[in-house]
Amino acid sequence: MRGFTLPAWNRDDYQSPQADTYLRQIAATGARWVTFTPTWYQDKLTDSAMHTTEETASDDSLRHIISLAHSAGLKVMLKPHVDLVKGQDRAEIRPDDPDAWFTAYDQVITHYAQLAAANGVEQFSVGTELAGLSGDLDHWRQVIADVRSHFRGTLTYAANYDEYRRIPFWQELDLIGIDAYWPLGEKATTDVGRLREAWQPIAAQLADFSARQQRKILFTEAGYVSQRGAITEPYSWTVSKRNGDAEQAAAYEALLAAFDGKPWWAGVCWWMWDDWPDAGETPKKLAYTPHGKPAEQVVRHWWASH
């Protein structure tokens, strides 16, 4: 998988005039996939249900952008998220009533599985970084079975990098999905060699895990902000206020060099391509997007020329 995520932060982002432009820019990097992230929200970590807000992509907008993506020659992964209205970490969701939560979640996720099937989506994620709930094998087996009853494409789950070993249901899915935000050092660096070395023990562990599970591993997310020190906390939007374009590019280079060609690795979907006008809380020059930065040229070198 050679992909980018194009998240939505508003109801109509995916129907905006920029949508087609972004998708064609993504395709021009050599990418062959794009991921979309309709997001539902909880008010509290202990709530037993989730709801839409004005930040939830509408179904019509999803159908629109899936069609645009296919027209641009891109395959699609649909990866629904659950977030918190006040911005807490979704990994901390621990509902007071797990049965009720999973009943509500099953309805949400099967709705998107039906939408995905009806619109020719190629790949689907049954969940993202729900570490407080992902150990519940029986509930997840039911969720996955219900998704499979509607969607015949490839299924994964996007586990955080510190969560994937504790997932009990990989055998129910087609791919192991990991959001690959491993810290690669304690200090900022643009040394690709050092960053590649930092990946080596992680890659060895992943190779072993893949062999034991008999599933390939997809990096459902990976990315770095354009900030000095990004490699120390890849999961953070706010590492520093100093520009780190060179560090971002080095991190992209190191990841692709460390994993490209490994038979157990199914590829990467970078977080993220670009932000919609007026949507980004982080200025573009400091944000995760590689667009118009040296990291975009790294991607083009690896993907457009291979």
UniProtKB/TrEMBL annotation:
Pfam family, one: GH113
Source taxon at top rank: Bacteria
InterPro entries per record: GH, GH113
Protein name stated in the entry: GTA TIM-barrel-like domain-containing protein
Species this protein is from: Streptomyces orinoci (Streptoverticillium orinoci)
Species classification: Bacteria, Bacillati, Actinomycetota, Actinomycetes, Kitasatosporales
